[in-house]
TrEMBL record:
It comes from Sphaerisporangium rubeum. This is Spermidine synthase. InterPro entries: SAM-dependent_MTases_sf. GO terms for biological process: polyamine biosynthetic process. The keyword Plastid does not apply. The keyword Manganese does not apply. Keywords: Membrane, Polyamine biosynthesis, Transmembrane, Transmembrane helix. Pfam families: Spermine_synth. Signal peptide: none annotated.
C-alpha cells in the first residue's frame, strides 16, 4: 500500500484535512461518481438528439475521465476544482445550444438524415465527450486518493458500496420522475462536501459559484420547458386545433413522437390506422373480443380499437408519462374506459409473460428512437421486431385471430424485411399495404391464411433484402452485417483522443505496462456486462427497472467476489481462470429460447446463475490480482481505461451478435492470463 503521510506543500493548492474520514469519504465520492455519470448520460441525451444514436458516447467519455482521474490521483495532491467549473460550462452550452429535430422538415428520423436545429454532430459531440471526461475525472481523483489510504480490497469494497448507493439513488429519482434540478442539487451538495479549498474565496469562486450556476440553469430548464421527466425521455407537449379537432402534440428528447387525436379524425386522415381492421377476418366480422396493443402511447390506437368494437383491450406502453398524458388529455379518454387495461412494461416482455389469447395483436408505431442505457446498439423496441417475437405473437392469437403492425418504415428494404419476418413466423405471406409517404405501411398476418383479407398478394421481398432480425442480432435498421462507417470513424477518434489524454495525464505508458493484464480484464468485463444487460433485457424487458436491477446485480456480484477474496482462502489464479472459462462456456451453451420457455421465477434463477457465475469468477481473479499490485491507483486506472476499448469492441455485436461477444471476451481473458506477471499465477 502507498502511504500518504507527508503534509502537502503550502503552495501546492492542496486541501485542508477532509471533513470526512477516509471510508465514508470513499463511499460518498464513489456514489457521487456513478450518480454523476448516470445523470450526464440521461440529461445530455434529453437535449442533444444525436445522443439518441450514440448513447454510449457519454459513457465512453466517463470511462476515460474516471481512468484518468485514478492515474492523476497518484501524481498530484491538488483538488480537482476544474470538475464543477467544466460541468457548469457544459450545462450552459447544452441549454444554450440544444439539438432538436426541425419540426418543419420532412426528413426521415434516423441519424444520417435528421434535419436538426442547433450545432451539427461534428461540433457538439466532441465537446460533450471531452467535457464528460473532464467532469468525471474530478470525482475519480477523489476516489483514487482514498485508495491510497486503505488496503487494496478494503478500498475496492467501499468503492463498490458507494457505486451501489449511486445507482439506488438515481433509480429512486427516476421512479419519482424527478426533474434535473433535483440531480443538480445532489451534485452541488456532493461538490460542497468533497472539495476542500484552502481559503473561503477559493471555495466560493471554484465550488459555490459553479454549483449555483448548475442548479440555477437546471431550475430554469425545469420551469421553462414544462417537461415531464420519465425514466426514458424528456417529454414535452402542447395543444392546438385543426378546425374543431383538438390535438395534443408530444415530443420526446426534442423529437416529434406522437399526437393524441380523436379516433374518428385519425381514421379519416391516415389510412394505416383503419387497415388492420379491414385486412383481418375478425375485424371485418366485428369479432374483436380481445385486442392487444403494443406501443399504446397516449391512447389514439386504443381509442380506434374501441371505436371498432373491441370488448377488451390490453394496452401496453413502456413509458408511464406517455400513458399519464393520454389518461389526462386524450380527447376520447380511452384510458378511462372500463374495457381497457393498461400495462406499463416492455411489449416483448408482456408477450412472454401473459397467458391470454387475442383476436388481434397490434404493434402500433413502437419506434422509440432511444437506446437502452449501457447497450450501445439496443433500442427499447429492438426485441419486438425479431422472428422470435413474431412467433410469440402468433402463439398468443386465437384461432382465426391476426397480427398487424404499422409505421413509417422509410425504406423499401425495411418493409420487405418485416414482411419476410412475418412470413417466416406465420408460415405464409402477409398482407402488405403501402399508404402515404415515407414508406407508410401496414403488414398484416392472420393465424392462418384464411384469417387475413388481402386485396392482392405480396410479391415477396426484393433482391438484397436482409434476412429477418433475430434475438441474437436484433438490429432491424442495420441493412448489412457490418459496422456503419460513421460509428467506425467516431470510435477511432475516441480511441485516439483517449491515447493522447492518457499520455498527457499519466506520462509514459511504461508506467502502466505491468498492469496490461488488468487492462484486458477491464476490456473483457465490459463486453461481459453488455452481454448480460442485453440478455436480461430480452428475458425480462428493456424497462429502466430491469436495467437498474442488472447494473446493481453486477455490482453485488463484484462485491461478493471481493468479500469472498478478503475473508476466505480462494483457489489459485489458474483455477479461478478455469472457473471463469467454464462460466463463459455455460453462458454460450444455454440458449435464451430455452430460458424464455421457463416459468418466470425459475427463469430468473437460471438467468442469474448463468449470467453471474462468470462475473463472479472474473472479479475474484481481478481482486486477487489487484491485491498484489504495487501501485493501486495506476492498476485500477488501467483496468478502467480498458473499459473504453471494451465499449468500442461492443459494436462487434452488429457483426457477430451478442453471443459472439462471449467468444471475444473469452479470448481477451485468455490474453489477460497470458500477460500476468511471473510469480502471480500460483497465488492462492
Amino acid at each position: 500500500m502507498i502511504a500518504v503521510d507527508t503534509p502537502p506543500h503550502p503552495d501546492s493548492g492542496a486541501a485542508r484535512a477532509p471533513r470526512l474520514a477516509v471510508r465514508p469519504r470513499l463511499v460518498v465520492a464513489s456514489a457521487f461518481m456513478l450518480f454523476l455519470e448516470l445523470a450526464l448520460i440521461r440529461w445530455t441525451g434529453s437535449n442533444i438528439v444525436h445522443l439518441s444514436y450514440f448513447t454510449n458516447f457519454v459513457l465512453l467519455g466517463s470511462f476515460l475521465g474516471i481512468g484518468l482521474g485514478f492515474l492523476r490521483a497518484g501524481r498530484t495532491t491538488r483538488q480537482p476544482y476544474y470538475s464543477p467549473l467544466v460541468l457548469a460550462a457544459l450545462v450552459l452550452i447544452v441549454l444554450r445550444f440544444p439539438v432538436t429535430v426541425n419540426r418543419e422538415a420532412e426528413g426521415i428520423l434516423y441519424f444520417t438524415s435528421l434535419s436538426t436545429s442547433g450545432p451539427p454532430a461534428w461540433a457538439i459531440l466532441p465537446v460533450i465527450f471531452v467535457a464528460a471526461a473532464v467532469v468525471l475525472m474530478g470525482p475519480a481523483e477523489m476516489v483514487g486518493r482514498c485508495f491510497t489510504e486503505l488496503s487494496r480490497l478494503d478500498a475496492y469494497r467501499y468503492d463498490l458500496i458507494g457505486s451501489l448507493t449511486g445507482i439506488v439513488l438515481f433509480s429512486a429519482l427516476s421512479f419519482l420522475s424527478a426533474p434535473p434540478v433535483a440531480w443538480g442539487l445532489i451534485v452541488a451538495v456532493a461538490y460542497g462536501v468533497l472539495l476542500q479549498p484552502r481559503s473561503l474565496g477559493r471555495y466560493v469562486g471554484l465550488v459555490t459559484v459553479p454549483s449555483l450556476v448548475i442548479v440555477g440553469a437546471l431550475a430554469f430548464e425545469t420551469l421553462n420547458a414544462g417537461a415531464l421527466w420519465s425514466p426514458y425521455y424528456k417529454v414535452t407537449h402542447k395543444f392546438f386545433a385543426v378546425g374543431d379537432v383538438p390535438i395534443m402534440d408530444i415530443q420526446v428528447n426534442g423529437i416529434p413522437h406522437q399526437q393524441a387525436i380523436p379516433a374518428r379524425n385519425r381514421l379519416e386522415w391516415e389510412r394505416q390506422y383503419a387497415l388492420p381492421y379491414e385486412r383481418t377476418a375478425v375485424g371485418t366480422q366485428g369479432r374483436l373480443d380481445d385486442v392487444l396493443i403494443v406501443g399504446a402511447g397516449s391512447g389514439t390506437d386504443v381509442a380506434i380499437a374501441l371505436s371498432k368494437g373491441a370488448k377488451h383491450v390490453d394496452a401496453v406502453e413502456i413509458d408511464p408519462k406517455l400513458r399519464e398524458l393520454g389518461f389526462k388529455n386524450h380527447p376520447d379518454r380511452p384510458y378511462s374506459d372500463p374495457r381497457v387495461t393498461t400495462h406499463i412494461t416492455d411489449g416483448r416482455a408482456f408477450l412472454e409473460r401473459t397467458d391470454r389469447k387475442y383476436d388481434l395483436i397490434l404493434f402500433a408505431l413502437p419506434d422509440s428512437l432511444t437506446l437502452v442505457s449501457g447497450a450501445s446498439s439496443l433500442r427499447l423496441e429492438s426485441y419486438l421486431f425479431t422472428e422470435e417475437s413474431m412467433r410469440a405473437a402468433r402463439n398468443h392469437l386465437k384461432p382465426g385471430g391476426a397480427f398487424a403492425m404499422y409505421n413509417y418504415y422509410r425504406e423499401l428494404w425495411l418493409v420487405d424485411r418485416l414482411a419476410s419476418t412475418a412470413e417466416a413466423a406465420f408460415g405464409h405471406k402477409p398482407c402488405v399495404d403501402e399508404v402515404g409517404a415515407g414508406r407508410q405501411a401496414v403488414i398484416t398476418a392472420g393465424f392462418t391464411p384464411d384469417a387475413q383479407v388481402c386485396p392482392s398478394t405480396w410479391l415477396g421481398a426484393s433482391a438484397g433484402t436482409p434476412p429477418p432480425a433475430v434475438d441474437d442480432r436484433p438490429f432491424l435498421y442495420l441493412h448489412g452485417r457490418d459496422i456503419p462507417s460513421i460509428y467506425l470513424i467516431a470510435l477511432g477518434l475516441i480511441l485516439l483522443v483517449s491515447v493522447l489524454a492518457v499520455r498527457a495525464v499519466a506520462g509514459p505508458f511504461r508506467r502502466m505496462r505491468p498492469y496490461a493484464d488488468l487492462f484486458l480484464l477491464g476490456v473483457s468485463f465490459l463486453l461481459l456486462e453488455t452481454k448480460n444487460i442485453t440478455g436480461f433485457a430480452l428475458l425480462f424487458g428493456t424497462t429502466w427497472v430491469v436495467n437498474a436491477v442488472v447494473f446493481a446485480g453486477v455490482l453485488v456480484a463484484v462485491l461478493a467476489a471481493v468479500e469472498v477474496t478478503r475473508r476466505f482462502r480462494t483457489p489459485s489464479l489458474p483455477v479461478m481462470y478455469g472457473i471463469l472459462f467454464g462460466g463463459l462456456v455455460l453462458a454460450a451453451l444455454v440458449p435464451n429460447s430455452w430460458l424464455l420457455g421457463l416459468p418466470l421465477p425459475l427463469r430468473a434463477v437460471c438467468a442469474v446463475v448463468v449470467a453471474f457465475l462468470p462475473i463472479f469468477a472474473a472479479n475474484v481473479v481481478f481482486a486477487k490480482r489487484f491485491n498484489d499490485t504495487a501501485d493501486a491507483t495506476t492498476a485500477f486506472g488501467a483496468n478502467l481505461l480498458g473499459a473504453i476499448l471494451g465499449g468500442c469492441l461492443e459494436y462487434l455485436s452488429l457483426v457477430i451478435g451478442y453471443n459472439g461477444l462471449l467468444i471475444v471476451a473469452g479470448l481477451l481473458y485468455l490474453g489477460a492470463f497470458a500477460l500476468m506477471p511471473r510469480g502471480t499465477k500460483a497465488v492462492a
